[in-house]
């Protein structure tokens, strides 16, 4: 067990309490770092998993760009909110109730985007997370992870990471293409300091 006793919201309740647009992680726009990465890598189509979709705003923007999008979350309230938003905009997106640590989603996906799931997981479950996302990313696909940076002051809320930690945690299963210091766009002012990580699956070991 971890000796980290930090507390996180009740993910089942938070979307039932209203004021979703005031949640700290709510970003009505496509994540700027993701948009730049997609453009830089020439990724304009394919299957995308928005992991921990929350209010679904990222999934909506990706669908509007023509991607085949699945959004997953362990909160039924989040899934319901995202489904309603997609219906209002006439977008076809598959939203599923799923826990990445016990995932039943069938891949592979050309892109898996995690904008807030990884950095709230217990440290002792990080290896399970890496194994789960490795199964979901296509051999020639990409994993994009945004998480809080160790440069962000304080120790409340999401766990903080250094670039070296990203290499240590993911390096056995993924090639870490880049880890850039950035900010986590949302409703906090100023935006928290963050890392944006671009990862490619390593070939599966034979035998």
UniProtKB/TrEMBL annotation:
Cellular component terms (Gene Ontology)? cytoplasm
Ranges where the Methyltransferase domain occurs: 48-141
Signal sequence span per UniProt?
none
Q: What Gene3D superfamilies does the database record attribute to this sequence?
A: Vaccinia Virus protein VP39 (3.40.50.150)
**What InterPro entries does the record point to?**
Methyltransf_25, SAM-dependent_MTases_sf
- Pfam families, alphabetically? Methyltransf_25
The source's domain of life comes to Bacteria
What GO terms are given for molecular function? protein-lysine N-methyltransferase activity
Supply the name of the protein: Methyltransferase domain-containing protein
Q: Which organism is it from?
A: Chondromyces crocatus
């Amino acid at each position: 067990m971890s000796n980290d006793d930090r507390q996180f919201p009740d993910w089942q309740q938070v979307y039932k309490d209203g004021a979703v647009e005031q949640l700290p992680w709510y970003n009505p726009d496509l994540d700027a770092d993701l948009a730049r990465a997609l453009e830089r890598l020439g990724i304009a189509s394919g299957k995308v998993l928005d992991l921990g979709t929350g209010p679904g705003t990222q999934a909506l923007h990706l669908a509007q760009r023509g991607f085949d999008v699945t959004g997953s979350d362990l909160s039924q309230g989040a899934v319901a909110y995202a489904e309603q938003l997609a219906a209002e905009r006439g977008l076809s997106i598959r939203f599923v109730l799923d826990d990445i640590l016990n995932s039943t989603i069938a891949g592979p996906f050309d892109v898996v985007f995690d904008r807030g799931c990884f950095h709230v997981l217990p440290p002792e479950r990080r290896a399970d997370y890496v194994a789960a996302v490795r199964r979901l990313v296509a051999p020639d696909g990409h994993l994009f992870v945004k998480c809080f940076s160790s440069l962000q002051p304080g120790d409340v809320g999401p766990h903080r990471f250094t670039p070296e930690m990203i290499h240590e945690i993911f390096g056995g299963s993924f090639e870490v293409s880049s880890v850039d210091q950035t900010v986590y766009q949302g409703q906090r002012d100023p935006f928290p300091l963050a890392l944006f990580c671009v990862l490619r699956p390593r070939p599966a070991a034979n035998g």
